[in-house]
Amino acid sequence: STMEETDREAVATAVQRVAGMLQRPDQLDKVEQYRRREARKKASVEARLKAAIQSQLDGVRTGCQVVLRALNITGNEELRKNDLHITYRELITIFEYFKIISFKISKNKCYSHSPAFFLVLLLSCINFPEIVRETHDLIERGELLQAHRKLMDLECSRDDLMYEQYRMDSKNTHDMNLIHTYFGDMQKLSEELAKQLWMVVQRSLVTVRRDPTLLVSVVRIIEREEKIDRRMLDRKKQTGFIPPGRPKKWKEKMFNILERTVSTRIEGTQADTRESDKMWLVRHLEIIRKYVVDDLLVAKTLLDQCFPPHYDIFNRLLNMYHQALATRMQELAAEDLEANEIVSLLSWVLNTYTSAEMMGNSELSPEVDVNSLDALISQNVVDQLLSKYMSTLTSNIIGWLRKALETDKKDWIKETEPEADQDGYYQTTLPAIVFQMFEQNLQVAAQINEDLKTKVLILCLQQMNSFLTRYKDEAQLYKEDHLKNRQYPQCYVQYMIAVINNCQTFKESIISLKRKYLKSDMEDTLSISHANMDATLDIIAKEGCSSLLDEVFMDLEPHLNELMTKKWLMGSNAVGTICVTVEDYFNDFAKIKKPYKKTMTLEAHRRVVVEYIRAIMLKRISFKNAEERKEGAERMIKEAEQFRFLFKKLAAGSGEDTEGLCDIIEAIAEVIKLTDPSLLYLEVSTLVSKYPDIRDDHIAALLTVRGDASRDMKQTIIETLDQGPSQPNPNYVPIFKEITVPTLTVPKLLK
Known about the structure:
Shape: rod-shaped
Structural class: mainly alpha
Strand content: under 5%
GO molecular function: SNARE binding
Number of strands: 0
CATH class of the largest domain: Mainly Alpha
Subunit structure: The exocyst complex is composed of EXOC1, EXOC2, EXOC3, EXOC4, EXOC5, EXOC6, EXOC7 and EXOC8. Interacts with EXOC3L1. Interacts with BIRC6/bruce. Interacts with MYRIP. Interacts with SLC6A9.
CATH architecture of the largest domain: Orthogonal Bundle
Subcellular location: Cell projection, Growth cone; Cytoplasm, Perinuclear region; Golgi apparatus; Midbody
Order of helices and strands: HHHHHHHHHHHHHHHHHHHHHHHHHHHH
Number of domains: 4
Main location: other
Helix content: over 70%
Distance between the termini: 154 Å
Radius of gyration: 56 Å
Low-confidence stretches: 75-89, 99-113, 745-751
Mean pLDDT: 85
Oligomer: single chain
Number of helices: 28
């Protein structure tokens, strides 16, 4: 380039001059002297050059002043003392002036440069740096409108100047860069101002309450910039020229900043983590709810008035909040949430969001229509969360039930009696714990929707079904362990009663739970499951009652073994002891709830009678004469009466007629008591017609106990009876079929 050639020429000339000066060795001593001389010459040339340029600039200044005076005369206010604004016409004038200067200077080979270079020099001599400083101070003081006015003037000057340069010589990038570099400070001013605007925009919901004027100023500045952007884009279409940094798109940036602010506000509400607070999600969601409602109310009542209607600021903000919430909810849904957290999230997303507590707030309508809001998370994500919730809940319920049963089992071996309810019935806390847990989960599921509530109820009852099978097995093991050592556990009877009573509580609780949480049209879906549970509970209770009666009869065994023996005939008090023992046990059994206690009393009565008849059929005694038969029969009738009295007392209030059982003992006594052997067949046939399950071996045993019937007589009676009609009592429950007769002793007794 020309500059490089000039530099090379200058270096070559300098080398020649130095070589001419230093031809002899003694001249080296004068180097310092030569250097000073050359420095003086250089300073002299530079001074002359500066003077020439200054003289040109003085001419330019004079020209400008002429222009200023001319403008003032015509009343044009565009050029003010401290607020320079170079108009298009003046630029033409100054440019023409600089063309002449440039041409003259280049002809004189003084300093070759374009008009733009000299215009930059001109501006530096006027007050551009001062205006930049003033604008900066205004920004610092927060006087944003005035600062922007000055910035616009400066930008307008630069843009018009660049446009003129572009018009004259669009390929001259060097001059364009020169102008751009000169106005570099102005670009920084624009950035400084923008920074202030975005700070106000970020805090717009706070600013609008404290200083709405400031927000209005910011919006006015953005609107001015939008107009300039449009003007510059129009000019670009016509001329192809657009100034650097245009379009600024400040309106778009403002909305982007609002969007980022909203996102940050939503994300920033999570103060806690699961490790620091188990309720972290509930708190997080509640803070979000409060912030969103407060912000939207401010936006509707105050912010809307600070923006032009075409900004549609409320709806834009509403959309931003919705998007930010959707993003946040999706992030939360993707986390490894626990069952209760899934419910909190879904309840908030599906219910709280559109409720009167949030978007359905009456003060937000009609602008916010909850029916037109999109879902915060997709149905697919909702289904995934629900599926995860159900599987987590299933394993949780299994774990809770197992733990509850283990805890209950520990109570069974305590040395203190179980608690009693308000009616005095023994119970353990198991049913309460189980159904409290079911209730809690159902209440939680109900927060989401009916469908989930039904699913959770079905799940609870399914798990209850499996649990009851385990409960049954554990009660059986409890009984078996006790039988190995009847002294342990100390309160076995009381805890077995509690287990039986729990069955009734479980039954009532299942009905109550279904009534409360199941729609009537869903009843059929659970009827089989319900029937299964009831059946299992009945088995547990029945086996429990049976094991308690086993306890009674194990204690009665030595006394039952005394019946129908010589000792008994001579006046043993075995039946008295039996009655006292049964009554003693039934003092505890009074703590059994009614349906089971009633069954228990009936079963005890039945078993006592069965054991009594079994004692007769064991043929431990064979009466020797009529006297013994009479004595034995009367004793049997008396003892039947004792049993009748005992069980009437135990069944008090149950309304059960149990008289018939003791009647069997009396009917057998009548056969034994009979004095006329010729009437024996008739007496026996009456007995058989009443109790048709009496087998031949029973009759044979009975006749053996009588002691006066020959083998032939027995044979005849038995054979004749086979043809006889039976007239059983319709309420009769077969009793003899439970009683086996030992056969080995028959030949001995017949001899």
